[in-house]
Specification:
The protein is of the alpha+beta class and 422 residues long. Helices cover 14% and strands 28% of the residues. It has seven helices and 23 strands. Strands 1, 2, 3, 5, 8, 12, 19 and 23 form an eight-stranded antiparallel β-sheet that branches. Strands 4, 9, 13, 16, 17, 18 and 22 form a seven-stranded mixed β-sheet that branches. The protein starts with 8 loop residues before the first strand and ends with a helix.
C-alpha cells in the first residue's frame, strides 16, 4: 500500500468534493455529484439513478415522496413474494474495451456472431476515473487497487415502520436479501444481461464480477431492526431506525485476480474467456432487496432512501482519508410551518384538500386542526389561508388570492354539510 508524506487538503470545485495532494494528481473524486433526488430515475443511462422494480406487487417504489424538504425514495412491502426484487443502480463508464464478442460459438471457438456479442460503448471514461488514474499502469482508466465507494442514507418510515410479515420481529419475516449495497463490474456497458452459474463462474453474460454473488461481500442492511439482515444470515452492516437517518456505505477494491474464485487461471470469466481490469466498460453501484420464498409481505411497512454518492479513489489509503459522512452528508430536514399539512414546503391546494376532507372532525394537527380547538372549522381554515404560499407563487405565476380561496372553501364546506343532511 502506498504511503503519502504530502499533506492532504480538501477542495470544493463546482460543488464536487475532491481530495488532492498539494501537488500532483487527485487521489479521489466523485463519479457523479451527490444524488439528492433519488426520485429522478433516468433509467439505465450514464449520470442517473436507475430505479428498477420487477416484483409485481411484492416490493414497490414510491418515486414521488417528500419529507421535510427532501425528495425521498420510499420502498414498501405490499404483497406476496414473486421471486424477484427491487433496486437502484448507478453505472459509471470506463470507456470501450475493444471486445466485440465473447464466449464464441463458431467452429473452433471462432467469434462469428453466435456468441455473446457486444455493443460499442461510445461514452468516454468517467472524468473522475481519468483524474485519479493519471499516473496508473493503465493511464486514465480503472486500475487494480482502485477503490469504488457508494454510500446512501436510509431510515425506517416513522409512520409505517418496516416490520415484515404481520409485525413479526424475526429474521424470517423479512425478504431473504433484506438490503445490500454492492459494486459490480461489467464488460459491456449499460447491459442488463448477466446470468451466473454459481459464485465464481459467470458462465455467460456481461457482468464479470459481482461483489455479492462472486465476492461474498457487500454492505447489508437490517431494515426492521431485528438483529439480522435477511434469512441467509448475512452480517449486519447497518441497522435502521424510525428516529434518524443512517448512512450505509460499501467499498470495493478492484482486483481482477481474486483468490476466492476457485480457479486463479480464470478469475473474471465468461465461458472460457477471462478478463482483466482493462476489460471493464461499466463499474456499477447497486442497491438490491429480493425474496424467493413466496411469502406474503402485505402491510410489511416501508423504508426511505436519500442522498446517494458514488466515489472512486486511487487506493485504500486515499479512501480511508475521506470520511463518507463528509463527502456525502445526511439529508437536512426542514421544519415546516403547521399549515403545510403534507410537509412538501408549500401551503397550497393539497393542504386545503386535507383540511376540507377532515372538516368537522377531531383530528391531529397534520390533518387540519391548526388552532388546537377541535373540531376542524373556519378558524383552522383561516390559519391555513393566511399562510397560503403555493409553488406557483415562487415562480411568478398568478395564483388565486386567499379571499377567493376562502369563498371556494366555504362553498365546498356547505356542499359537504348539505350532503350529510341528505
Amino acid at each position: 500500500m502506498s504511503c503519502y508524506s504530502t499533506t492532504f487538503k480538501s477542495l470544493f470545485t463546482g460543488g464536487v468534493f475532491l481530495l488532492a495532494l498539494g501537488t500532483g494528481s487527485a487521489l479521489a473524486e466523485n463519479l457523479y455529484p451527490q444524488f439528492t433526488d433519488l426520485n429522478a430515475s433516468g433509467g439505465l443511462v450514464w449520470g442517473a439513478t436507475d430505479i428498477f422494480n420487477d416484483t409485481a406487487g411484492t416490493l414497490e417504489w414510491d418515486e414521488s415522496a417528500s419529507y421535510k424538504g427532501n425528495e425521498i425514495l420510499v420502498a414498501t412491502m405490499t404483497g406476496p413474494s414473486s421471486n424477484a426484487g427491487i433496486g437502484i443502480s448507478i453505472p459509471a463508464s470506463n470507456g470501450e474495451n475493444g471486445i466485440d464478442e465473447t464466449d464464441c460459438q463458431g467452429p473452433g471457438g471462432a467469434c462469428d456472431g453466435t456468441g455473446n456479442v457486444d455493443i460499442t460503448n461510445t461514452e468516454p471514461v468517467n472524468p473522475a476515473i481519468v483524474t485519479v488514474n493519471a499516473g496508473g499502469s493503465i493511464p486514465g482508466r480503472l486500475n487494480n487497487g482502485n477503490v469504488l465507494r457508494a454510500s446512501v442514507w436510509m431510515r425506517s418510515d416513522p409512520n409505517n415502520p418496516a416490520i415484515g410479515i404481520n409485525g413479526n420481529a424475526a429474521a424470517d419475516s423479512m425478504p431473504q436479501v433484506e438490503g445490500i449495497l454492492k459494486i459490480e463490474a461489467w464488460k459491456e456497458a449499460l447491459s442488463i444481461f448477466g446470468d451466473f452459474d454459481g459464485p465464481g463462474d459467470a458462465d455467460y453474460g456481461d457482468r464479470i464480477w459481482d461483489q455479492d454473488q462472486q465476492g461474498a461481500a457487500g454492505s447489508f442492511a437490517d431494515i426492521n431492526a431485528d438483529g439480522a439482515s435477511g434469512q441467509w444470515g448475512a452480517p449486519v452492516t447497518v441497522t435502521l431506525n424510525t428516529e434518524s437517518w443512517t448512512q450505509m456505505v460499501v467499498e470495493y477494491v478492484l482486483d481482477d485476480n481474486p483468490t476466492n474464485t476457485g480457479n486463479s487461471a480464470f478469475p473474471w470469466w465468461i465461458g472460457l474467456d477471462s478478463f482483466t481490469a482493462a476489460d471493464v466498460e461499466d463499474i456499477r453501484a447497486v442497491f438490491y432487496v429480493g425474496d424467493w420464498s413466496g411469502r406474503d409481505y402485505t402491510n410489511g411497512g416501508s423504508w426511505w432512501m436519500d442522498n446517494l454518492l458514488y466515489e472512486v479513489f486511487t487506493d485504500q489509503a486515499a479512501a480511508d482519508a475521506v470520511d463518507p459522512q463528509t463527502s456525502n452528508p445526511a439529508p437536512v430536514e426542514v421544519v415546516f410551518q403547521p399549515a403545510d399539512l403534507n410537509q412538501d414546503g408549500f401551503v397550497d391546494g393539497l393542504d386545503l384538500g386535507i383540511q376540507l376532507g377532515n372538516w368537522g372532525q377531531v383530528v391531529t394537527s397534520d390533518e387540519g386542526e391548526l388552532n388546537a380547538t377541535p373540531p376542524v372549522d373556519g378558524l383552522d381554515l383561516g390559519i391555513l389561508l393566511g399562510a397560503w404560499a403555493p409553488p406557483a407563487a415562487a415562480a411568478g405565476v398568478t395564483v388565486p388570492e386567499p379571499t377567493s380561496l376562502a369563498l371556494m372553501a366555504l362553498v365546498s364546506v356547505s356542499l359537504l354539510a348539505t350532503r350529510r343532511v341528505l
